[in-house]
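Please fill in the sequence for the structure shown.

STRUCTURE ENCODING:
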């Protein structure tokens, strides 16, 4: 596969993307290496979340390769993710199909999401990543994310124990 010569398109997600987005989420979750959760939430919960994304113009993007969704990056207000969370801090989630990693897809997605977050007035973008995921951490470092804290170790669906860390990108005076 020659990824370098193919047109990639980053765009906001739509409700029409639900099935492809869910399939991507299932595929990356199924690898068992990047999330402590063994599978994505039920598709109905994702559909409800996407309806909120569209209603509120939250920064959730997909990236296509030859018309197929191969990655996504989602930034939800912390207040949507947990009771008492901040309205001005977003929590980032991201997934890219294995064969499209390290080809600029993640960088293109994150750049679009960060620009949207900045324009929308959010003050910071928070994410969790495993210490062992050096490729993702390198990308986050390159984009200006810094270590915010070490989180409690967790067990992956495959049985391995991982050390998650929280990283943060400040987006302005308040971040």
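FILLED IN BY: designer on duty
SEQUENCE:
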């Amino acid at each position: 596969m020659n990824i370098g010569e193919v047109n990639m398109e980053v765009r906001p997600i739509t409700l029409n993307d639900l099935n492809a987005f869910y399939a991507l989420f299932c595929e990356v979750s199924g690898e068992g290496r990047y999330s402590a959760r063994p599978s994505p939430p039920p598709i109905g919960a994702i559909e409800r979340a996407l309806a909120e994304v569209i209603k509120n113009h939250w920064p959730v993007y997909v990236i296509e390769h030859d018309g197929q969704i191969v990655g996504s990056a989602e930034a939800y207000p912390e207040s949507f993710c947990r009771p008492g969370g901040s309205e001005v801090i977003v929590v980032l989630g991201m997934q890219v199909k294995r064969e499209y990693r390290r080809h600029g897809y993640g960088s293109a997605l994150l750049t679009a999401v960060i620009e949207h977050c900045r324009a929308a007035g959010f003050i910071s973008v928070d994410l969790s990543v495993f210490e062992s995921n050096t490729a993702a951490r390198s990308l986050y470092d390159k984009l200006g994310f810094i270590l915010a804290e070490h989180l409690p170790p967790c067990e992956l669906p495959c049985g391995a124990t991982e050390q998650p860390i929280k990283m943060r990108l400040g987006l302005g005076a308040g971040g």
